[in-house]
Design a protein that fits this description.
Order of helices and strands of chain A: HHHHHHH
CATH class of chain B: Alpha Beta
Number of strands of chain A: 0
Number of domains of chain B: 1
Radius of gyration of chain A: 13 Å
Number of strands of chain B: 7
Number of domains of chain A: 1
Shape of chain A: globular
Largest interface: A-B, 17 and 28 residues
Helix content of chain A: 55-70%
Strand order of the largest sheet of chain B: 1-6-5-4-3-7-2
Structural class of chain B: alpha+beta
Shape of chain B: globular
Oligomer: heterodimer
Radius of gyration of chain B: 14 Å
Number of helices of chain A: 7
Largest sheet of chain B: 7 strands, antiparallel
Helix content of chain B: 10-25%
CATH architecture of chain B: Alpha-Beta Complex
Largest sheet of chain A: none
Strand content of chain A: under 5%
Structural class of chain A: mainly alpha
Strand content of chain B: 15-25%
CATH topology of chain B: endopeptidase fold (from Nostoc punctiforme)
Number of helices of chain B: 2
Chain lengths: ~110, ~150
């Protein structure tokens, strides 16, 4: 059985993710609403990768926190961020990274 | 910042960068005078139970109304004793940006996930990514001296 983790190490998939992520960072840099950022084609492309994108998104959150939360929610149907931390980028990233470790998507 | 499709009216003389990049807060937070979190319906908003994903100009107007601001008919001049905010929207009335007036009469904006700038007028950053200034609101107190 091929796991999500092994899929995420596929060079073609990682390259596609990095290309879309870079495009999204560029296109969303002036935007002030994460919902608007989510509608960009590049962001939707990452959601379209599905489960294999999860460890890559979590790695991105560890490396350089950004508003990847809606993609993670859409793919995993989870939301580990406590209501009081909504809007706090550092705390939202930390909640998702903890979730990633607990769920086996991310090495501790 | 350089003039481009996003900000066609920016020139080197009409704005100044006043902070490093910071993704932790957005223009709405900065207009309110807050730097710890990203203000948006569904994340942090006042009132907190505002419909998630409402990106309309009306959501912005409602936020600032809740905070005590009233419509001042697009008057962006300095009025002693009043704090002012300018609200921007696309032609489809999608709220895109908020700027805050400084005690000097100039304006300050956080540009998305990037930097803060001081700009001479609200119109300087309009005409591109943020659409146009659609609303100016004021509140009867001194402009908060939060920066730049």
């Amino acid at each position: 059985m091929t796991t999500d983790a092994t899929l995420a190490t596929r060079p073609d998939l990682r390259d596609r993710f990095q290309r879309l992520a870079g495009q999204w960072r560029e296109e969303s840099q002036y935007m002030s609403n994460t919902g608007q950022m989510t509608l960009l084609k590049s962001y939707l492309g990452i959601i379209g990768i599905g489960e294999p994108a999860v460890p890559l998104l979590l790695e991105e959150l560890k490396r350089d926190p950004d508003y990847w939360f809606r993609a993670l929610e859409a793919i995993t149907l989870e939301d580990p961020v406590p209501p009081e931390d909504k809007g706090r980028l550092d705390r939202m990233a930390a909640a998702w990274i903890d979730w990633g470790v607990r769920s086996g998507h991310l090495a501790s | 910042m350089k003039a481009g499709a996003e900000f066609p009216r920016l020139t080197p003389d009409n704005h100044r960068e006043t902070s490093p990049r910071d993704k932790a807060y957005n223009c709405i937070a900065w207009a309110v005078g807050e730097m710890k979190q990203w203000w948006e319906p569904g994340l942090y908003w006042v009132p907190q139970d505002w419909p998630t994903d409402d990106r309309s100009l009306g959501a912005l107007e409602s936020l600032f109304s809740t905070l005590g601001y009233v419509d001042c008919n697009l008057d962006d001049g300095l009025e002693p004793g009043f704090a002012k905010v300018a609200l921007y929207a696309t032609s489809a009335f999608e709220g895109t940006h908020a700027a805050r007036q400084l005690p000097s009469g100039k304006w300050t904006s956080k540009l998305g996930k990037l930097i803060d700038i001081e700009h001479d007028t609200p119109e300087v950053i309009a005409g591109g990514e943020y659409g146009e200034v659609m609303q100016v609101m004021k509140r009867a107190d001194a402009p908060a001296d939060l920066g730049p």
